[in-house]
Amino acid sequence: xxxxxxxxxxxxxxxxxxxxxxxxDAQWRTNDFEQAIKKPRNRFxxxxxxxxxxxxxxxxxxxxxxxxxxxxxxxxxxDVYGIDYADETVRxxxxxxPELKVFAGDVRSLQFDDGFFDGYWSFGxxxxxxxxxxxxxxxxxxxxxxxxYLFLTVPxxxxxxxxxxxxxxxxxxxxxxEIKENFYQFALNPSSIINNFQEGGFxxxxxxPYSGNIGIQQDINIFQxxxxxxxxxxxxxxxxxSLTSFFANHMNLYIFRK
Length: 258
Known about the structure:
Layout: E1 2-6, E2 11-15, H1 21-28, H2 33-37, H3 43-52, E3 58-62, H4 68-75, E4 79-84, H5 87-96, E5 101-104, E6 117-123, H6 134-143, E7 144-155, H7 159-166, H8 177-181, E8 183-187, H9 190-199, E9 203-210, H10 212-219, H11 224-232, H12 234-248, E10 251-257
Parallel strand pairs: 3-4, 3-6, 4-5, 6-7
Antiparallel strand pairs: 1-2, 2-8, 7-10, 9-10
Helix pairs in contact: 10-11, 10-12
């Protein structure tokens, strides 16, 4: 995976794997799909959902992948729906967890009524659309009720990445067809995310940087074998992430209210 710096938009462009439905079907294929869905509860998801929305409320995860977070929310007592455009993956979820409301669909054009949901989770979705995420944001706003919450996670231009970009540590992005055809994702500027969603009618409630361990792995070149080993260990990886997420975070969680 090659990362380019797009100076105009102050973002990283990841190139090497085209993130289309076929890619995600292959990414999520497993010999034990039921186990992939029914993992131990996702503490991160539950922590932030219950902070703002009571169980029993109606939620959507747009771009739900293997459905494990939908399952966690379902077990927590929420009326939760999942949507994904990877058809084979959706069929596997429907087969192994028929109790879940998971459907094939496109987050740019949802089949739900206006104001249908109390909350909307989006885990690492909007950054995979080369043409931009405006249609996704508009649908998020439409299907949320007034006062509803949007939980949005996106790869970030951390302080570390911003410093590296200013020092010329990434190759310069040049618009070309080959890059578009092999585009994977963006790491987006936090200010642009906040401004864009506020322009779309959302109010920022909370922002949380996290996954410093991944940021360290991707952006620190010295002692790389040792860092990889430490970051991949569950205990030391958690410690590194906690200590480094304020400046080397790979991801940001944004919580907005409509």
